[in-house]
Structure formats: structure tokens, C-alpha cells
Amino acid sequence: MRTVIFDLDGTLADTSADLIAAANACFNGLGHGDLLNPVADAATAFRGGRAMLKLGFERLGHGGQAEIDREYPRLLSHYRDGIDRETRLYPGAMDAVERLRSEGMAVGICTNKPEGLADLLLHRLGIRDVFGSLIGADTLPVRKPDPAPYLAAVETAGGDAARSILIGDTVTDRETARAAGVPCVLVTFGPDGRGVADLGPEALLDHFDDLPEIARGFLGAA
């Protein structure tokens, strides 16, 4: 079966404001105030919790791996408490997903967000049942850009890796697709804009309205 696998943060949904808020809650708890900006630092938010903590501590001129590791569980707790306060699906995302499904394609999610948090967010957004698979950062012993999570997402969705594509937004997704030997489509509506073209994806996605046609171009007819 033809299969389209999506990243979550920065691809299907703009989660940056809630992620930044969780990191800032950690820094506030340490008496430093808000060290990250939800707009200027959105790209870092999409690279994960530890990346946000690292950036904040760097701005303080200190902070090593031990401090990041100490604060990371607190960040996850803060994030769980406010996981859908500001998060929004990108325009046209679910219309495009439903069109793919109506054409007989399987759809799934492969994210480096912990699976439990990803599952919670998808349920809060009311879209969990739409996707045939959800593989998170801790579902397997490895995470993206290792190809194993992607391949597991395809298999769990009932698809065929040889007729699959990955939709993402960062270098991690680009490297994952390359490792799995599948086409990569990177969205241009994230904080990096069309700068993602420098990563050499097989295609760029400017709006979700264009996704069904792009998918058919790579995966062919049913």
C-alpha cells in the first residue's frame, strides 16, 4: 500500500509556542525568567526539549549536560500540563490527510516527541484515530534519523516502505528519509521557510493543498 508518513512538530502542527513555554517554565523555576522567545526561537523548539534547554543555558553563559538532563523531566512535565494551549494544526493539514486516505493511501506519524506526549496531543487535537501508526522518540530503542522508527511507522500503518514518502521540516527528517531510502518532502511554512531547500529534499511543500499531487507523483496510482 502507498504510504505517507508525517513528522509532527513543525510539520502537521505548530507546537513551538507551547514547547517554548515549557522551557521557559524551567528557567523561571531557576530564577532566570523567560530566556527563549516563542517566535525568534521557534526553530530550536522544533529540534526538541534538550535543544531548547541548551540554548537557554548558553545565553546564561553556563550550563552543561548535567543541568540539561536535570531540567529535561521538568520540561516534559510542564509541557504535558500545557500541551495544547497554543498549538495549532497548519492550514489544510487534515484536509490533505483525508484526501490521501480517500485515494487509498495509508498515513502515519513518526516523531521525535515522546510517544505518550505525541499521543496525548493528537487526542487533544481530535485527530489520533486518523493515523494508522504513531512512532515516537521512545517507542523503539532508537529514534530518527535512524531509519528504524520510520520503517516501523510504515509497517504499522499497513504500508510498503518501497512505496512510501516522509513529510518533515528539519535536517533530522531529511537524514531519516535518506537512511530509509525514501523520498523526503520538506515543508516551507516553518521557521526556516524555503531555507529547507538547502537540505536537498526531493520536493518542497508550500501548502498542504499541494500534498496529494506531490504524493501521487512519487507513489503513483493505486
SSE pattern, N- to C-terminal: EEHHHHEHEHEHEHEEH
Number of domains: 2
Radius of gyration: 17 Å
Q: Report the CATH topology name of the largest domain.
A: Rossmann fold
End-to-end separation in angstroms reads 8 Å
Coarse morphology: elongated
Q: How many beta-strand runs? A: 8
Secondary structural class: alpha/beta
**Considering the protein shown, what is the CATH homologous superfamily of the largest domain?**
HAD superfamily/HAD-like
- The average pLDDT score comes to 96
Main beta-sheet annotation: 6 strands, parallel
| Portion in strands | 5-15%
Specify the helix fraction band: 40-55%
- Report the CATH C-level class of the largest domain: Alpha Beta
Q: What is the number of helical segments per DSSP (H or I, 4+ residues)?
A: 9
Q: Which ranges are low-confidence, i.e. pLDDT below 50, for 5 or more consecutive residues?
A: none
Spatial sequence of strands, sheet with the most strands? 5-4-1-6-7-8
Architecture (CATH level 2) name of the largest domain:
3-Layer(aba) Sandwich
